């Protein structure tokens, strides 16, 4: 299993959650009943498909060990297994939060996914 999984979130949504210490999710998460996460192999495609041309995003690296049984790997896009969190995301499980800027080519510029740098 991956050491880290990733959430892409608009900065204002994440900053609002910081006041409570828990991220309950975005609208798509509420609709589906779990928080959508991506593995390192999936997160860039997730950004391309669902966050194209969006500015002011954050990449959140989440420690899978801290999520316990609430983390389920389930079949989703293209039959791949995706990490889904069936609980609010506690900030204590967050390894890093970094900006996810758009490059001049309109593609999000990812940091090293292990360190967030």
Strand and helix layout:
Blueprint: E1 4-10, H1 11-18, E2 22-23, H2 27-32, E3 35-36, H3 43-50, E4 57-63, E5 71-75, E6 81-85, E7 89-90, E8 94-99
Antiparallel strand pairs: 1-4, 2-7, 3-6, 4-8, 5-6
Description:
It is a single chain. 19% of the residues lie in helices and 31% in strands. It has three helices and eight strands. Strands 1-4-8 form a three-stranded antiparallel beta sheet. The longest helix is centred in the N-terminal third of the chain and has 8 residues, at 11-18.
Alpha carbon gyration radius: 13 Å
Q: Into which percentage range does the β-strand content fall?
A: 25-35%
- Low-pLDDT parts are none
Structural class by sheet pairing and helices: alpha+beta
CATH architecture: Alpha-Beta Barrel
Helix fraction, binned, reads: 10-25%
Largest sheet: 3 strands, antiparallel
Distance between the termini: 22 Å
How many structural domains can be distinguished in the coordinates? 1
Oligomer category: single chain
**Strand and helix order:** EHEHEHEEEEE
Q: Which class in CATH terms?
A: Alpha Beta
Determine the number of helices (DSSP H or I, runs of at least 4 residues): 3
Question: How many beta strands in the DSSP annotation?
Answer: 8
Walk across the major sheet and give the strand order: 1-4-8
Label the overall shape. globular
CATH topology: ADP-ribosylation fold
CATH superfamily assignment? Answer: Protein of unknown function DUF952
Please state the average pLDDT score.
Answer: 94
In short:
Helices cover 19% and strands 31% of the residues. It has three helices and eight strands. The model has no long low-confidence stretch (mean pLDDT 94).
